[in-house]
Design brief:
This protein is an alpha/beta fold and 371 residues long. 50% of the residues lie in helices and 9% in strands. It has helices at 27-32, 38-52, 70-81, 88-97, 99-110, 134-145, 153-165, 169-173, 183-187, 190-200, 215-228, 236-253, 268-272, 276-291, 305-312, 333-341, 346-358, and strands at 59-63, 115-122, 177-178, 181-182, 259-266, 296-301, 325-327. The strands form two sheets. A five-stranded parallel beta sheet has the order 2-5-6-1-7, sandwiched between helices. A two-stranded antiparallel ribbon has the order 3-4. A hairpin with a 2-residue loop joins strand 3 (177-178) and strand 4 (181-182). Helix 7 (153-165) packs across helix 11. It starts with 26 loop residues before the first helix and ends in a 13-residue tail after the last helix.
């Protein structure tokens, strides 16, 4: 057995520089290499209390420096709270191993909901001056998680309405073939997309007797979608309407499980920056959600949220929701190396134990300082 054989994974493997909150490529590794610190357990406990709450804003801000693991932690919470996810077994593994995730799972079990549908947005490296308003970004994230196309904007709104307002049309459209082409075929050819929809939809049996059974009606529905989803005029009120509509639809289609959304906004502070307009947009969006369906919203940032608010628009009131923040301290480098990077395989761990047992007088003391 070589030294490399002792470890679960190759210790010379490439390190993922920055976690992506929506990344799904390495979930099993993310779960296996997670190590719960006392600080992480406090964050998960606080989030569990937020999930249980009903009469107060269900909001939490995780304050942590770059590289502390806040994105990794936020991503893993999504595995624990969504029992309908294809990766729900990974959430059960986390809850079975770590007290913080167990508390989170138990908090969900005793709350008024059975399942949370995560919608995570990565706001890192976005040029806030060029991005649409935050309410539209959240709506776009919802659409993406629910399986709707998000480009162009009007198609997101049109598909959303088709699915929410008509039984079976959106599902049937995705497999319907017209003029030798399917919906997926024409999505990439935006110049022909509308023309294809104008003629394809009236031919579908599912549109009989609906407002989509003629070319003129289909054109009117698309024109309405273009008007309704202009990103610059899409505000908190429009977002609340869509969250409420989607929540109702999720519950109608579920197998008796009460479902709500959980929104995760990663790196809010960097996205807001020093822009008063962006901060007001953020606070107005959170206020609207809290006074509406009041979904769970978890946000992260590298700076204190109350301090950010004070520097931009004024100090928050004593019991303002922006004060519900919890710090996340980064794990010591020694813990990261020993518990994650150099985690031993079962055989490797047994072999090291055997070797140490066979050499009871072994000492790692040196005769001179190691440079």
């Amino acid at each position: 057995m070589t030294i490399g054989d002792l470890f679960r994974d190759d210790p010379t493997r490439d390190l993922e520089e920055v976690q992506k909150v929506r990344g799904r490529d390495h979930l099993e590794t993310d779960v296996r290499e997670f190590h719960q610190t006392e600080s992480a357990e406090r964050v998960l406990t606080e989030l569990g209390d937020v999930i249980e709450a009903q009469a107060e804003p269900r909001f939490l801000y995780i304050e942590a420096t770059f590289g502390s693991g806040k994105t990794h932690l936020l991503k893993l919470t999504g595995l624990v709270v969504d029992s309908e996810s294809p990766d729900a077994d990974l959430g059960d593994q986390l809850a079975g191993k770590w007290a913080g995730f167990e508390y989170l799972q138990q908090s969900l079990a005793i709350s008024h909901v059975d399942r949370l549908k995560p919608v995570f947005l990565n706001l890192l490296d976005r040029d806030a001056s060029k991005e649409p308003p935050l309410p539209f970004l959240i709506f776009e994230g919802m659409g993406r998680e629910l399986g709707y196309p998000t480009d162009p904007n009007w198609l997101l709104e049109w598909a959303w309405r088709a699915d929410m307002e008509y039984d079976g049309i959106w599902e049937a459209l995705q497999t319907f073939e017209h003029d030798g082409q399917t919906f997926d075929d024409v999505r990439s050819e935006k110049a022909f997309l509308r023309t294809w929809l104008y003629s394809a939809l009236p031919e579908m049996p599912e549109t009989d007797g609906t407002d989509l059974d003629t070319e003129a009606n289909v054109k009117a529905s698309i024109d309405q979608a273009v008007s309704d989803v202009d990103p610059e005029s899409f505000g908190p009120r429009e977002l609340v309407e869509r969250v409420e509509t989607a929540t109702e639809a999720l519950n109608q289609r579920s197998s008796g499980k009460r479902t709500e959304f959980m929104f995760g906004l990663d790196e809010v502070a960097l996205f807001v920056g020093d822009s008063k307009q962006r901060y007001r947009e953020f606070e107005e969006t959170m206020d609207a959600l809290q006074h509406g369906p009041n979904p769970v919203v978890v946000t992260t940032g590298q700076y204190s949220l109350p301090d950010t608010r004070e520097s931009l628009i004024g100090e928050p009131p004593e019991k303002h929701w922006t004060r519900r923040q919890v710090p996340l301290e980064g794990a010591d480098t020694e813990i990261i190396v020993r518990k994650r990077w150099l985690d031993k395989s079962t055989d490797g761990g047994s072999r090291v134990s055997e070797l140490l047992s066979s050499m009871p007088n072994l000492s790692l003391d040196t005769y001179s300082p190691i440079e």
